[in-house]
Specification:
275 residues; 10-stranded mixed β-sheet; 4-stranded antiparallel β-sheet
Length: 275
């Protein structure tokens, strides 16, 4: 565990960083992953404790789970860089998990990451129950707030019915079209990358509520070094080729395929976030 703290107006405000317990060699293969607790309080923030908000840092990218009132202040006091925040997940629409969102979106605008392909700022993706899109639109439109960095809202249809279109305010100029995510096989599939898969499930709460699960992709199993040496292949670049799925040739002329010398894949880490 590692603590980051700054003294502000007589108060020590801390962001608690919880690091995953993996060896240095494992980090090279699976990447770094840690959690930064910006706030763990309920109902409202206090002078020394922020409302609910957690950031998951992974290989230069940051994802936020919930954004209670005052989160942008705790964010600036933490070790997390605004430009690294790419996705925000909201468990439910109670204020202590949501009221900090408009201010945070303004904060991260000043550190937008520019896409190499489009030469424009990368959008921020937001995920939450139906109603999140309307909340963000209303907050930004009524306050006359406009961004350089676009955003996309993906709503999770926990109750199985979309709200009436009459309740929706007009699109914000910086909003890109998102999707409505519906339940399939008992869970909600949000997205998957080469490194991670993100799913969600409904939770019991007075309002529609979601729990999120981030699952890391499996990593390649361990090499049978003794077997490779017995076939005349010493440690070196050929080991890397085998782990990347390539077939190599031993000094005897024998073809060594990955399935001959690799163990079973190692399951990835899994992190769950509930309200």
């Amino acid at each position: 565990k590692q603590w980051y703290q700054r003294r502000v107006r007589g108060h020590v405000l801390r962001s608690h960083v919880l690091r995953s317990h993996v060896s240095r060699d494992q980090r090279r293969m699976v990447g770094t992953m840690d959690l930064v607790f910006l706030g763990t309080g309920s109902c409202y923030p206090s002078p020394s404790r922020g409302a609910s908000s957690t950031v998951l840092r992974m290989d230069g990218e940051c994802w936020m789970f919930d954004c209670g009132e005052g989160t942008q202040i705790q964010y600036q006091r933490s070790c997390v860089k605004p430009g690294r925040l790419t996705r925000i997940f909201i468990t439910h629409l109670h204020g202590d998990h949501l009221f900090g969102l408009p201010g945070l979106m303004c904060l991260i605008q000043g550190a937008a990451t520019v896409s190499v392909e489009t030469a424009s700022p990368e959008p921020v993706h937001l995920y939450g129950p139906v109603g999140l899109r309307n909340y963000i639109r209303t907050s930004l439109v009524l306050s006359g707030t406009y961004f350089v960095r676009p955003y996309i809202v993906h709503e999770i249809d926990v109750e199985g019915t979309e709200k009436d279109d009459e309740l929706q305010t007009p699109n914000h100029p910086n909003e890109m079209e998102g999707e409505i995510i519906r339940q399939k096989d008992g869970s909600f599939f949000l997205f998957e990358t080469k490194e991670y898969k993100v799913e969600a499930g409904a939770l019991k709460h007075p309002v529609p509520c979601i729990g999120f699960v981030v699952t890391e992709a499996n990593t390649v199993g361990s090499l049978d070094v003794n077997l490779l040496k017995s076939k005349g292949i010493p440690p070196g670049p050929l080991y890397g080729k085998i782990k990347s799925g390539q077939t190599v040739t031993a000094p005897s002329g024998e073809l060594i395929t990955p399935d001959m010398v690799l163990g079973e894949d190692k399951p990835g880490r899994k992190i769950g976030n509930t309200t």
